Amino acid sequence: MEQGFLTQTLPGSGGDLVAIDNELRLKLYRMMSRARQMEQRAYDLFMQNLVKGTSHLALGQEAISAGFAAAMRPDDYTFCTYRGHNHTLLRGASMTGILGELMGRECGLMRGKGGSMHLTSVEHGAMGSYAIIGAHLPIAAGAAWSAQYRGTKQAAVCFFGDGTTNIGAFHEALNFAVIWKLPVVFVCENNMYMEYTPIDAVTAVENPAADRAAAYGLEPVIIDGNDVELVFETAAAALARARAGDGPSLIEAKTYRHGGHSRADPGKYRPDEEVAAWLERDPLPRYRQRLVGYGLDEAEVAAIEAEVEAEVDGATETARNSPAADVSIVDKDVWADGGSDWRN
Questions:
Q1: How much is the CA Rg of the chain, to the nearest whole Å?
Q2: Band (263; pLDDT cuts 50, 70, 90)
Q3: 325 lies in a domain?
Q4: Under a CB-based contact definition with an 8 Å cutoff, are residues 252 and 188 in contact?
Q5: What CATH number is attached to the domain comprising 104?
Q6: Strands 193-194, 197-198: parallel, antiparallel or unpaired by DSSP?
Q7: pLDDT at 4
Q8: What pLDDT, on the 0 to 100 scale, is given for residue 17?
Q9: Using one digit for the tens of pLDDT, what is the confidence trace for 294-319?
Q10: Angle at which helices 22-47 and 228-243 cross, to 10°
Q11: How far is Cα 112 from Cα 161, in angstroms, rounded to an integer?
Q12: How far is CA 326 from CA 147, 177, 316, in A?
């Protein structure tokens, strides 16, 4: 563990649950590479004026989405923010569907209606990206309550940014999750900035999520969110705790976005030396170096990168050639019955 971070063992987790072998390591690297290359392509498409609306990229934060996705069951639930491309992809959603949705194309996950900030793939447990800060935390708690009631041993994992910790819904969701011992894992992706404002400039505690944990009877868990193996181990422990009926966990994963808040933001408010220091801790080259250190063949790692590049190219071309979303679907699927008629 690098200096500046701590890992608190999650009570009731059962200790070391999953051995990390080379097969899993390569899987984790492939997942991070898919997320990185797809996000970079989303940036390129935006610069070509092909992405409709804005987008919020998670370049630099791939270890969190990969570590958790690898630890989750296929029937678990993921809830994420508008910075949710990676989470949706790594739960199993189509890369073509995601890029198509960003470009407003018929092949998009929501046929081009939702765009970057509303990615959803229910069949893969990706239960939506939420543009309203903190709105999804009580919804994740509700999904966990449903799983608890049905006895399915499913868990809900809810990702949110550091700024969400100053929103009332954060505290309300934590409170009820603890009271009802819900199988939900709350994950704060602390990238140090709430849009353009440093989180420490407007928050009374140093660690915005972990330092509030004790108020709800939870252990403070702070991890290096750029260490994919540590994220995986922490996720596996928290999920085991949830499935065992031991209640929720609150994890603060320290990370950093490489770019600005959105594509309209150059991010110049961040000190150059801070950006440079975090780029040195980029999770992909960092883990690539570790894989080689484990004795894995560097050619095998390079082959993964090439395969992913080909996948991204193919998904891009399919999405680019898909028809634009038709205005006739604007009033479809507003309600659960598939229509838009107001119901009293």
A1: 20
A2: confident
A3: no
A4: yes
A5: 3.40.50.970
A6: antiparallel
A7: 44
A8: 64
A9: 999 999 999 999 999 999 999 999 99
A10: 110
A11: 26
A12: 37, 41, 20
Q: At 243, phi and psi to the nearest 5?
A: -70, -25
Quick check: 222 and 252 in contact, CB under 8 A? yes
Identify the residue whose tokens are 């399915």: 152
Q: Which helix (H) or strand (E) holds 80?
A: strand 77-81
Residue 112 in domain = yes
The CB-side HSE value for 285 (13 A sphere, CA atoms) comes to 6
Residue 187: which of 311, 270, 325, 67 has the closest Cα? 67
- The number of folded domains in the chain is 1
Tokens for 99?
């890029």
Can you give the residue range of the structural domain that contains 92?
A: 22-315
In a domain, 192, yes or no: yes
- Does position 216 have pLDDT exceeding 70, yes or no? yes
Asked, for residue 229, whether it belongs to a domain, the answer is yes
Q: Which residues of 6-29 are buried (b: 16+ CB within 10 A; e: fewer)?
A: ebeebeebeeeeeebeeeebebbb
User: Is residue 335 classed as helix, strand or coil in its secondary structure?
Assistant: coil
Name the burial class of residue 265, with classes exposed (0-12), middle (13-18) and buried (19+) by CB atoms within 10 angstroms of its CB: middle
The helix/strand/coil state of 220 is: coil
Mapped to the 3 state alphabet, what secondary structure does 88-124 carry?
Answer: HHHCCCCHHHHHHHHCCECCCCCCCCCCHHHCCEHHH
Q: What is the pLDDT of residue 7?
A: 52
For helices 22-47 and 62-71, angle between their N-to-C axes, nearest 10 degrees: 130
- Bridge-partner residues for 249, per DSSP? 185
Phi, psi of 114 (to 5 degrees): -90, -40
Q: What residue type is 203 in one-letter code?
A: T
- Do 99 and 316 form a contact (C-beta atoms < 8 A)? yes
Is residue 45 within 8 Å of residue 103, measured between CB atoms?
yes
Cα–Cα distance for residue pair 251/41, rounded to 1 Å: 30
**What are the backbone angles phi and psi of residue 252, rounded to the nearest 5°?**
-105, 115
What values do phi and psi take at 244, rounded to 5?
-80, -5
